[in-house]
Amino acid sequence: MTAAFPAGPVVDGYPARPSVRAGQVLRFHVSTRADRFRADFYRCGARPRLMGSTGGPGRYAPPGRHDEDWRWPGHDFTVPGEWPSGVYIAVLGPGTAAPPDPPPAGAEDLDARHSRMLFVVTAREPARTSRVLYKVPVFTYHAYNRSGGASLYGALPYDEAYRTVTLRRPGGGIGGPVKGRPDAHDPRTPRQTFAHWDAPFLSWLETSGFTADYCTDLDLDEDPHLTHPYRLLLSAGHDEYWSTRTRRHVTAFRDRGGNMAVFGANTCWWRVTPAADGTAIRCAKYPPGVPQGADTDLMRGVPDHWWETEPENSLIGVSYRNGGGHWDGPREPLGFTVQHTGHPVFAGTGLRDGDILGEEHALVGYECDGAAHRRDAHGQAVATGTDGTPADFTILGVADLPTAPDSGWNAAVRENDDPGRAATFGLCTRGGTVFNAATTDWARLLTLDARIRAMTRNVIALLS
Q1: What is the pTM of this model?
Q2: Using CA atoms, how far apart are residues 173 and 193, in angstroms rounded to an integer?
Q3: What CATH code is carried by the domain that includes residue 380?
Q4: Shared-domain flag, residues 93 and 224
């Protein structure tokens, strides 16, 4: 369900930066043929909460390209210092529009492909009320954002420019067209949007009594000290695009004893390079001489595949190249066969070794990650470490992926095919502890499976 748009001329906009600290000025840009515009700011948590409004004179500016700053008319809004850190959505409309009554019940009611603007308010005093920091994947949102005619997945005709996208355009989580197909298992919102991937997790997080501060991956890229006050870094859904500095700073956090929990998959698959001023990202997706438009996940020698130069397994324990993705229609229901159920992660679930977790709700997918592994003398899956996964990564569940050609599962190239492809969730410790759920759809099951809720609660309580 999508909230109704205000009647009258369309109002579109985007923030100059994807985040702003509480108490500081949010610079944002608006184009409309209306005489005036209005922006109503909602914080997304257990429920969207209207925090304030602003407005200004309307001016029209034409759309730009996907790879250039759109340079729309700018407006300033001072974010109140008492606003809590979080993900905020601005609902944009003509000056006579007013907030809906009744208010939106969830982020899916705010979702739309125009007249919306997402930004993150970072904490005025970091870690004053929380030991948890949530990473909002703005790089990934913009990788799939097609405002201006293209995303990092290109558009015909292909050329070199399609490897760069600006952050200064509508979209980036909400408010713009996105690359991708509908999700047969959750058709309420499009994939590659905030409402689809992150909002369900954030709603559950706050409903369950957990507090967190929020940041974007650009914040983590620019500030090597951002994570220092926190005990746990959280990521969920589809956190696919990481810069070198974001990864370096998160790795340093872990090495100092900081913990990390990934309730998603296809994590840290592509490397991006932000522009020096933080207004665009670049990704080199094609080997020299390879025609653009080919499936680079099936190639070697791809410049910005993390796994080919510095396998992401060394940080997060698993990789998409050992798992796979299902793209069209409903997928075969698949769950994790669990092991080591005496581990505190399983407390209160009632699960025993050999039980299957989440099969009835197709937990594994839409994309999933895995670690290279073997079976020991007791039949339990043990990480081999041959793919960069720490050898002490404890595999808590395994889901062998379908191999039939008509199963619909797609897989990336990897070093070898022994053993077969599988999603594996688990954890390891290197200074701090990293837990990885290894499937994008973990958050979708928070409202469907009490065992998923219990395990998520256990992980956050243990690591924070």
Answers
A1: 0.96
A2: 4
A3: 3.40.50.880
A4: no
Q: Of the candidates 121, 151, 181, which is a domain's last residue?
A: 121
Task: Read off the CATH number of the domain in which 117 is found.
Answer: 2.60.40
For residue 81, give its domain range: 11-121
How far apart CA 464 and CA 459 sit, in angstroms, is: 8
Do 50 and 116 fall into the same domain? yes
Domains held by the chain: number = 2
163 with 47, same domain: the answer is no
Containing 12, the helix (H) or strand (E) segment is strand 11-15
Any domain includes 290: yes
pLDDT in single tens digits along all 464 residues of the chain: 444 555 668 999 999 999 999 999 999 999 999 999 999 999 999 999 999 999 999 999 999 999 999 999 999 999 999 999 999 999 999 998 788 778 899 999 999 999 999 999 999 988 787 899 999 999 999 999 999 999 998 754 555 545 899 999 999 999 999 998 889 999 999 999 999 999 999 999 999 999 999 999 999 999 999 999 999 999 999 999 999 999 999 999 999 999 999 999 999 999 999 999 999 999 998 887 777 677 888 999 999 999 999 999 999 999 999 999 987 789 999 999 999 999 999 999 999 999 999 999 999 999 999 999 999 999 999 999 999 999 899 999 999 999 888 898 999 999 987 778 999 999 999 999 999 999 999 999 999 999 999 999 999 999 99
Q: Could you tell me if 40 and 88 are in contact, meaning their C-beta atoms sit under 8 angstroms apart? A: no
Domain boundary (93, 121, 149) is at 121
Q: Are 303 and 378 part of one and the same domain?
A: yes
Q: Are residues 107 and 152 in the same domain?
A: no
**What strands lie across the sheet with 11-15, from one edge to the other?**
11-15, 25-32, 74-78
Whether 240 and 384 share a structural domain: yes
Q: Edge-to-edge, what's the strand order for the sheet holding 36-44? A: 19-21, 116-122, 86-94, 36-44, 49-57
| One-letter identity of residue 63 | P
Distance CA 3, CA 10 (A): 14
Q: Going edge to edge, which strands form the sheet with 409-410?
A: 367-370, 319-326, 409-410
- Domain membership of residue 266 (yes or no) is yes
Residue at token pair 């994008």: 440
The token pair that represents 238 in the structure block: 């589809």
Does some domain include residue 126? no
- Separation between Cα atoms, residue 133 and residue 141, nearest integer Å: 19
